[in-house]
Design brief:
about 180 residues, alpha+beta, 8-stranded antiparallel sheet, 12 strands, elongated
Length: about 180
């Protein structure tokens, strides 16, 4: 190999390294992970934009009434509950003084504008019938059918362009359409 070939080789290796470093440093949104607590195995990885919302929908175990909890994630990966919607006050439901605004939307009582930090949180998934379901970008995934009676953790983190590109090449389990 001649000296000029080595220089070209070093140049291209350096260029690839530089591109990978830039891709690692450039932010590319967030990843919300739903992970099994007992094994640490990720069930779902949802790409999110800062401020984007996802919803947990389920049926109250005592009242058997539908409940929607709308969450958002900020650019640092902190999770907030933004809204709760339900048919009526039931066991454990209702307004928290100083949090949000209570309104009526059709038959539903809604606490809106909550923006209450939850941070990473753990959910014990209920049986089929409770139907803990994640709704994200119009797609639904029923956790009660996937992992009934298991504890799952919701956590979010900022991700880099390199991470996004890697996910594109080797996708992790994202909610199927």
């Amino acid at each position: 190999m001649t000296r000029s070939h080595r220089r070209i080789g070093f140049f291209f290796v350096g260029l690839v390294f530089l591109l990978l470093l830039v891709a690692y440093l450039v932010p590319a949104g967030l990843a919300l992970q739903v992970t099994l607590v007992d094994s640490g195995k990720p069930l779902l990885v949802l790409p999110l934009k800062p401020g984007e919302r996802f919803t947990l929908h389920y049926y109250h175990s005592v009242e058997n009434a539908p409940i929607w909890e709308v969450h958002s994630v900020d650019k640092e990966g902190r999770i907030y509950i933004e809204e709760e919607r339900y048919l009526k006050f039931g066991a454990g439901m209702g307004r928290m003084p100083g949090v949000g605004r209570m309104v009526q939307r059709g038959p539903y009582e809604v606490i809106e504008n909550m923006h209450l930090p939850t941070g990473n949180f753990i959910l014990r998934v209920g049986s089929p019938g409770v139907d803990h379901t994640i709704i994200w970008r119009g797609v639904k995934k029923n956790l009660s059918h996937l992992v009934p009676h298991k504890a799952v953790q919701f956590s979010a983190k900022p991700v880099s362009l390199l991470y996004r590109m890697w996910q594109y090449i080797i996708p992790r389990r994202v909610i199927p359409g």
